Amino acid sequence: MLDEPFRWMEAVSTRHSYIREKLNKGQPVLGVPYNEGSLLVGFAPQPGKVYEIYDRIAFGALGHPADVERMRMTLLEMAHLEGFNRSASDVNLLRLLQFGIAPALKQNFEEVQRAPYLIQLLLAEIDPSGAPAFYRLNYDGYWETFPNGVAIAGDATVMDWISEEIGKTDFANMTLQQALKEALRLWEAGRKHSAELNDDHEEDESVPLSLKDAFGKWNLEAAVLSRTTPRKALFRRLGKDEIENVRAEAMK
């Protein structure tokens, strides 16, 4: 019995390795500010990376589609219950993270008899003062906040590299189109950075290396939380014309 704590720690370590391996091919989702709000953007073979959660809240995700849907529904229910029991103005990401989704993920991860969630989330919010905030939530319930934008990706090295580049870029003073183009440029640079890191290993040829390839093979999902909209809900998916403009430039 004396070795029970060691066995638990060994099981937790194994779960970390297992989940990281499963998420390794998850493609980046970028969350950045722009001069009228926040932008979430990412490529995927099938839709399922960017969602609305509540009036001022959105999230991007990578991982197993069933787990992404479970987390989406959980966040939706938490936000609407909070809005019903308190008020819509009391619904904010900090409360949802601290008292809801993060503890639930932590408990699931540490109960080693249960299957872990294969998921990583990027959450975005426009607070009542109009300031954007971004949060990164891990499969084990660990979360961090980033006021200037952040990325999630299955490859932790690429995720950190793109996030660092986002922090160096003045997205907050860009228009939506400028921020979208710059975010996609970082997505492409991240792919090339990944290829350089894996120079000694076999690259997955099914994953596009350039923006041109990505537009040819995959779908671009992009949505904003716009503080200039007259609607209560700030979330809006980018339209076909807005996507086509940036696609046309990438295909030149």
From TrEMBL:
Gene3D superfamilies, per database record: Glutamine Phosphoribosylpyrophosphate, subunit 1, domain 1
Keywords recorded for this protein, A-Z: Proteasome
GO CC terms, sorted: proteasome core complex
Membrane is among the record's keywords: no
SUPFAM superfamilies listed in its UniProt record: N-terminal nucleophile aminohydrolases (Ntn hydrolases)
Pfam families xref list: Proteasome (PF00227)
GO BP annotations listed: proteolysis involved in protein catabolic process
Taxonomy, superkingdom: Bacteria
Keyword Ubl conjugation applies: no
Protein name: Proteasome subunit alpha
Source lineage: Bacteria, Pseudomonadati, Nitrospinota/Tectimicrobiota group, Nitrospinota, Nitrospinia
